[in-house]
Amino acid sequence: MRLKMTVNGESRDADGVWPGESLLYVLRERLGLPGSKNACEQGECGSCTVYLDGVAVCACLVAAGQAVDREVITVEGLADGDRLDPVQECFVQAGAVQCGFCTPGLIVATHDLIARNPSPSDEEIREALAGNLCRCTGYEKILDAVRAAARRKAAQT
Amino acid sequence: MTKPLTSTSRAGGVGESPVRPDGPLKVKGEFAYSSDLWIDGMLWGATLRSPHPRARITGVDIGPALAIAGVRAVLTHADVPGDKFYGIDQRDQPVLAIDEVRYQGEPVALVAADHPEAARRALNSIEVHYEVLEPIFDAHKALFDPTSEHVHPGTNLVRHQPVRQGDPDDPAVRAQCAVVIARDYEVGIQDQAFLGPESGLAIPSEDGGIELYVATQWLHNDLAQIAPCLRLPQEKVRMTMAGVGGAFGGREDLSMQIHVAMLALHTGKPVKMVYHREESFFGHVHRHPAVMHYEHGASADGKLVFVKAQIALDGGGFASTTPAVVANAASLGVGPYEVPHVKIDAYGAYTNNPPCGAMRGFGAVQACFAYESQMDAVAEALGMSPWRLRQINAVSEGSTLPTGQVIDSPVPLSEMLDDLVAMPLPPSEEFDLRRMPGGVSNTTHGEGVRRGVGYGVGIKNICFSEGFDDYSTARVRLEMIGGEPAALVHTAAAEVGQGLVTLKAQIARTELGIERVTIAPADSRVGNAGSSSASRQSYMTGGAVKEACAAVRQRVIELAGAPADAQLVGGKVVTALGEVVAQLADVLGDTAIEETREYRHRPTERMNPLTGQGNSHVQFALCVHRAVVDVDVELGLVRVVELAAVQDVGKIMNLLSLEGQIHGGTAQGLGLAVMEEIQVANGKVLNPSFTDYLIPTILDMPPMRLKILENADPHAPYGLRGAGEPPTLSSTPAIVAAIRQATGLALKRVPIRPEHLTGTLAS
């Protein structure tokens, strides 16, 4: 089948899509956007988190057909060229990135958290990111990054 | 496809914490992991695996699979071009099963197709006829019951390593003991659970060779196993490291490397292969489960008199790294304590359980849970505090281990315990449901919740041991680029997330006195770097980069006509007294200076096969943990409230990365303590998914306090000590000790499950 959706502000088409393909597969394998990651493909790890019409979802749990004519924003759509989003910048600077496979999902989930709650408490950060598995960091530097990103965004507005 | 990394932070030498050069790519989603690779016209590879842990294969019919539209190849063992077996230590594992399968998930056949769904359907259409056999799944029986069947002809024993010192059975020795504690312990199978699945891309080349882009811990060892199976000379197998999504030991053995290359060579097309998560649980080796019997005797004043231990490690169907895991469990089996009389027997077994090999901590983790549990039991029997008992018996520089090896660098365990105990305990908190065991599930408001505090100590060998020719290679090139001196650092060492790319640039900046450093992609066009395991890359590849830089610097100094002890500082050649001899720009001109160096650590020896004696290790690293837990004793739910750690790293090379290693290693130890186990029944895995195999989330990991000490190892580059593994050892027993204190239960098995805490199952 043929799909059309808006991805990171651009209208995109994909041809010859098998109806069983997930949004994650279409993004990664058909639209050249492998930033959203394929760690579990069953909605447990959060590494494929994207915005679908402004709501953070696991792209692996969305059938590609469900995204037709809707707006998708992936981790590739958050930076402004070489200028990183404050969330991205804080993850790099805080040491919240090791192997980085969980990072794209955590970046989108954190971006979403701070948009909803500009100054989250530690408990609120933990609840919000409980669906994003990280195997490398033990999460301490991720908490540092989220706190710093919230402060930086607050200072910008 | 894999790009060189130019450090975005231009400053940051040894001891500083510049940001990692791959950081910006990773946060933008632009870093190319092995599962992200894509090339026009590529096919998708897939693997058919045995559903049985033990069976004879009586027939395979690939005809129906080949008939499916879009299927380009179906291969079995008959299609392996060269050697049919591979293995990291012993070449005992078939590339594809021949006549018999020895574990559930063993690869039997391969498919290449236009679309992953076509490949999946083809797998379902391959008809394999099995004669199912009763699996051998009890490691203890496999080793010690003479009537047990054998997994491989003639034996179920991979290695037996004794350690003998003094005589724990001498009645005169026993008479010195005020307490003797004998207990059995068990460790379940832990999975590395790296997030980036096994994956890669193989592209056939015009010369009949192959380009392989894979995520691995050790390119050159992969290459040495792959090439003979493909019947290709090593130079025709060109390997490049693709982005690695975590490893933790699980990428030390091969997974899909030979398979994807076979499919590409057979079809003449590029082939991509990506395991899904369930397949990943079958696609790599795990941490060995262990059954251990320990007996400790101590005098009334708390001095250990003897330790006896029998440690049985289940390696599953193939040898993998079991021989080295057995050696670690044996040589480090009493922990960092002075014990005059020791009798240890460590065994590695073949069974039809899931295959086991390397995982962070590697043999030392299993023994650490047992010996630290024993230390707590001895302390309790003597009425002593657990940390005081450890101090009384602690090793220090100059101590002799039960293997006869004298520790010849600082191991200030007693001081580390002082520091740990002095750390403040977590303050009392106002009630918040989110901080209760069970969290927002609203299972308790504090009734039935008991707090406990526990301690754990671990000792890990760093680098490869037992006489292995352990080295790394680095090539460093210095030249003027755009009017600025710049270095290119090239090694084959695997960046698995630990931050080696950052560290290599830091070393080059410090040694060459420049700012701009580029890290070349790791590939097989430069010499062997050894494995990113055994906490060894800062030491080994760090050492190689340092030496290669020193060789480059030497040539610059000669070119400049400067005294031999001159240094490179801030783009200038400077004498020891600080006088500027020349600008690097003037000395280099259009010349590029390139040097390659191999770095080796001091030689080690094999353990004596009968006594375990020998200088088998090159370096030792210690970490100590304190855990504070809240346990809901009615429901068996545990919340780890805080973890504190003290670790001696010799030299802090990069504080940010180092803290990340200690946090992350600690988290994996927490997972082993209370969550993580591959559950197996009759050789079959019950929970191959992240729904059922639980790893710690951000809700499970508590805040951590760290204290890091820098007592230099005079034998190591910059005095550094490997740091990645030790925290994984000590956090597990600390958490278990805290749960014991909260519940009063003996708790002889990890991971602890709720039913172990509520009395519904014998603990």
UniProtKB/TrEMBL annotation, chain A:
Keywords: 2Fe-2S, Iron, Iron-sulfur, Metal-binding, Oxidoreductase
Molecular function in Gene Ontology: 2 iron, 2 sulfur cluster binding; metal ion binding; oxidoreductase activity
Keyword Mitochondrion: no
Keyword Electron transport in record: no
Residue ranges of domain 2Fe-2S ferredoxin-type in the record: 1-78
Pfam families given in the database record: Fer2, Fer2_2
SUPFAM superfamilies reported for this sequence: 2Fe-2S ferredoxin-like, CO dehydrogenase ISP C-domain like
Family matches, as PROSITE patterns: 2FE2S_FER_1, 2FE2S_FER_2
Protein name: Carbon-monoxide dehydrogenase small subunit
The organism of origin for this protein: Rhizocola hellebori
Lineage: Bacteria, Bacillati, Actinomycetota, Actinomycetes, Micromonosporales
Automatic annotation (TrEMBL), chain B:
Domain Aldehyde oxidase/xanthine dehydrogenase a/b hammerhead: 28-134
Gene3D superfamilies in UniProt: Aldehyde oxidase/xanthine dehydrogenase, a/b hammerhead, Aldehyde oxidase/xanthine dehydrogenase, molybdopterin binding domain
Disordered: annotated span: 1-22
InterPro entries: Ald_Oxase/Xan_DH_a/b (IPR000674), Ald_Oxase/Xan_DH_a/b_sf (IPR036856), Ald_Oxase/xanthine_DH-like (IPR016208), AldOxase/xan_DH_MoCoBD1 (IPR008274), AldOxase/xan_DH_MoCoBD2 (IPR046867), AldOxase/xan_DH_Mopterin-bd_sf (IPR037165), Xanthine_dehydrogenase_dsu (IPR017609)
SUPFAM superfamilies from the UniProt entry: CO dehydrogenase molybdoprotein N-domain-like, Molybdenum cofactor-binding domain
Molecular-function GO terms, alphabetical: iron ion binding; oxidoreductase activity
Pfam families attached to this UniProt entry: Ald_Xan_dh_C (PF01315), MoCoBD_1 (PF02738), MoCoBD_2 (PF20256)
Bias-annotated ranges (Polar residues): 1-10
Superkingdom of the source species: Bacteria
Signal peptide: none
Name of the protein in its database record: Carbon-monoxide dehydrogenase large subunit
Organism: Rhizocola hellebori
